[in-house]
Amino acid sequence: MITKRWSVDNSVDKEDSYSQFSQAADLLKNNEVVAFPTETVYGLGGNAKNDEAVRKIFEAKGRPSDNPLIIHIAEKGQLDAFVAEIPQNALVLMERFWPGPLTLIFNLKDGVLSHYATAGLSTVAVRMPDHPVALELLKKTGLPIAAPSANRSGKPSPTTADHVWEDLNGRIAGLVDGGPTGVGVESTVVDCTGEVPVILRPGGITREQLTEVVGEVIVDPALADESQAPKSPGMKYRHYAPDAPLYLVEGTKEDIQHFVDDKKREGLSVGVLTTLENKEFYCADYVYACGQREKLETVASSLYEALRFFNTTDADIIFGEMFPGEGVGHAIMNRLMKAAGHRVISR
Ligand code: TXA
Ligand code: MG
């Protein structure tokens, strides 16, 4: 399959630029799959009402069919068609954070969306992305669009069109290049079907921001478990993983350098995942600064690029710094722990 690629040209008039990808909207309406930018990561979109379109998404990604997709909408009014009810907490959260990196779980109204999109569950995940290209594309189709991150399953999520191209060229009908995404980690997934909202996946909207608006918010206990390092991580944790094994180091820069030196003595090629503040300190084969520790949002926005960087090198092993788990650090640590297969070491 030939993958068409369009660029959104910010230097020309908005209307002219958007007309370039009306073809992308037409492909979506014809139940083809198209990747597009959102404010978090690139998504791989398909008509959520159509079995064929949704099957194409799973096929292109190589995604297990029991993992449900997020439905993307451009207007709140689209919800009533496929959501059973909108709880009060959800109303407040939508009002405050949509469009934005917040996905809400609702009870599903049956018979509208493809069962493949919701993996046969009785609930559905929905979000309204805060990106002009995504919103314009969604409006042009008028459809609820199912869109997981546009990476091959298991790989880091794509934050540039080139990442999508690397993973999916030849496997999807189209790609709209809208430049690099901003937030860099995926949306926060919050279950709103119970009395108290539950964070199922930390992301771009922090727990602190949610609490400010709705009061008590619980973090899914399964997430807390994940942050402890199991002795032998199962395959289910291989997500976002770079090709070389990543070890997170609980300790100082000196501790990390100590591990690097050890591996150098064994003759291995060694990478270090750090931040701008510490970049000059390390002596290793590859030292990659992922944003600024003092500004965690910059770490979030370059995290996946950093993980993909090591795949372009011959690094045999990577050592990474850890981050505080508050604010957007919650999402950063959640993704890093998965990328590291929960391997945390200390001296
Ligand atoms: O920022 C994002 O959310 C990006 C962009 C493209 O919008 N999308 C994204 O989709 O990250 P994906 O498919 O990579 O992750 C969707 C997550 C998965 O963890 C899935 O299990 C969860 O949402 N999910 C979907 N439907 C659910 C449901 N009904 N109940 C619980 N979790 C659900
Ligand atoms: Mg994903």
From TrEMBL:
EC number of the protein: 2.7.7.87
UniProt name for this protein? Threonylcarbamoyl-AMP synthase
The protein's organism comes out as Sporosarcina globispora
Chief location bin = cytoplasm
What's one GO BP annotation on this UniProt entry? tRNA processing
> What keywords were assigned to this record?
ATP-binding, Cytoplasm, Nucleotide-binding, Nucleotidyltransferase, Transferase, tRNA processing
Q: Which ranges of the sequence are coiled-coil?
A: none
Identify the InterPro entries for this entry: DHBP_synth_RibB-like_a/b_dom (IPR017945), Sua5-like_dom (IPR006070), Sua5/YwlC_C (IPR038385), Sua5_C (IPR005145), T(6)A37_SUA5 (IPR010923), TC-AMP_synthase_SUA5 (IPR050156)
- Family indicated by similarity: Belongs to the SUA5 family.
The entry's function note states: Required for the formation of a threonylcarbamoyl group on adenosine at position 37 (t(6)A37) in tRNAs that read codons beginning with adenine.
Q: Which residues form the YrdC-like domain?
A: 18-205
